[in-house]
Specification:
With about 400 residues, the protein is α/β, with parallel strands linked by helices. It is built from 14 helices and 12 strands. It folds into 2 domains: about 15-20 and about 270-405, Aspartate Aminotransferase, domain 1; about 25-265, 3-Layer(aba) Sandwich (Aspartate Aminotransferase, domain 2), CATH 3.40.640. The chain is about 45% helix and about 10% strand. The strands form 3 sheets. It has a 7-stranded mixed sheet with strand order 2-8-7-6-5-3-4, with helices on both faces. It has a 3-stranded antiparallel sheet with strand order 9-10-12. A two-stranded parallel ribbon has the order 1-11. Helix 12 (about 345-355) packs antiparallel against helix 13 (about 355-365). It starts with 13 loop residues before the first strand and ends with a helix. About 50% of the residues are buried. The structure holds pyridoxal-5'-phosphate.
């Protein structure tokens, strides 16, 4: 099925993929613009426009630190959520091994690939890893973590909220288990800003990753919180930026944009969450009622307020997405990074495993049918209506095609 423009039924865009990325808020863009033009200086330069850039950088760092309940020195600016995940995992793992503390890492089966592939890469260099399973709702149970800890465990990385199914992990509890034993605990919190509390002390985390473009900030900028005293080796070497923890001239406009976006996300958190949850709940109820063989993936309540991940028995998610796209509806089959590959998502496979032998085949059969709708602050009831209007027909049409092709002539 091609995506040529003449096949589109509408020019309207109904964007329901905020877990993949978000538009830059106009207030954020406005805050960024001077740092591309008049205040273009390098923050490492000593003359006036350099100092102005450094001042903006300091202010952004203070703002972000205060929202996370951290000290400004504990914030490292990076080039993305992926880079922050890489720095946290590789940076701590290598520092720990260098200090002779061991080389065992614990993570979960449903992490973003920026975490999983980094852990895999370290395994090729002599690290050992335990990949924790999840329960049928996508939760990492604290006892799974307790059972996996070893004397040579040097790092635990568990995401705050899952980008595909929205399940929110008991981070404070998992963090407390690690803290008790002095094991550094990283959480990939990329999906959390604007939806969940971000106080690093309440969460018991030593490292936390965020990425601006997931909360109405610009793409290509992230941050890593690193608690004072956490061992960390830099992964990008060169200049002395970021207290020698991440070399490279800082992305000043991006960082200013990220700080502004995080402030807005925090200010609007209660309102945006309630708004998204209301639309999401209407969508889920409407789909479950109107589309036979549909099912909600993940946790019924302990999930991101904007996330609806649904499976449709016997229908491929990709086919649904292509037909939705023709009606101007942008959704996803899971993580944007793997869509297009048609491989079942590692997150849904982990859920299927968790549900045990009796239900695994049934769930596995429905695996390709997962479609993720993730709401944002600009969505309206009309967007929900549009999906509820189109989706039952699309699923029915695809099922008919499958029956016809399987039945032969
Ligand atoms: C998007 C995402 C990332 C990657 O962030 P980038 O800035 O796109 O590199 C990592 N983890 C999670 C949970 C994400 O949703």
């Amino acid at each position: 099925m091609s995506l040529q423009s003449e096949e589109y039924v509408t020019d309207r865009l109904i964007y329901l993929d905020h877990a993949a990325t978000t538009p830059v808020d106009p207030v954020v863009l406005e805050a960024m613009i001077p740092y591309f033009t008049t205040h273009f200086g390098n923050p490492s330069s000593i003359y006036r426009i350099g100092r102005a850039a450094l001042h903006a950088l300091d202010e952004a760092r203070d703002q972000i630190a205060s929202i996370l309940g951290a000290s400004p020195r504990e914030i490292i600016f990076t080039g993305s959520g992926s880079e922050s995940d890489n720095l946290a995992i590789r940076g701590v793992a290598l520092a720990q091994r260098q200090a002779g503390r061991g080389s065992h890492i614990i993570t979960s089966a449903i992490e973003h690939h920026a975490v999983l592939h980094t852990v895999e890469h370290l395994q090729a260099f002599g690290f050992e890893a335990t990949i924790l399973p999840v329960d049928p709702k996508g939760l990492v149970q604290p006892e799974y973590l307790r059972a996996a800890l070893r004397p040579d465990t040097v790092l635990v990385s568990i995401m705050y909220a899952n980008n595909e199914i929205g399940t929110i992990q008991p981070i404070a509890e998992l963090g407390a288990i690690c803290r008790e034993r002095g094991i550094p605990f990283h959480t990939d919190a990329v999906q959390a800003p604007g939806a969940l509390p971000l106080d690093v002390r309440a969460l018991n985390v030593d490292l936390m990753t965020i990425a601006a473009h997931k909360f109405y900030g610009p793409k290509g900028v992230g941050a890593l919180y690193v608690r004072r005293g956490t061992p960390l080796l830099p992964q990008i070497t060169g200049g002395g930026q970021e207290r020698r923890r991440r070399a490279g001239t800082e992305n000043v406009p991006g960082i200013v944009g990220m700080a502004t976006a995080l402030r807005l996300a925090e200010e609007r958190r209660a309102h945006d969450s309630a708004h998204c949850a209301r639309l999401r709940d209407r969508l889920v109820a409407g789909i479950l009622e109107r589309v036979p063989g549909s099912r909600l993936n993940g946790h019924p309540t302990q999930r991101l307020p904007n996330n609806a991940s649904l499976s449709f028995e016997g229908v491929e998610g990709e086919s649904i997405l292509l037909l939705l796209d023709q009606h101007g509806i942008a959704a996803s089959s899971g993580s944007a990074c793997t869509s297009g590959s048609l491989e079942p998502s590692h997150v849904l496979i982990a859920l299927a495993r968790a549900s045990g032998t009796e239900r695994a085949p049934e769930i596995a059969a429905a695996l390709p049918g997962a479609v993720r709708f993730t709401f944002g602050r600009e969505n309206t009831d009309a967007d929900v209506d549009a999906v509820l209007e189109m989706l039952p027909g699309i699923v029915a049409q695809l099922r008919e095609m499958t029956v016809t092709s399987q039945g032969g002539v």
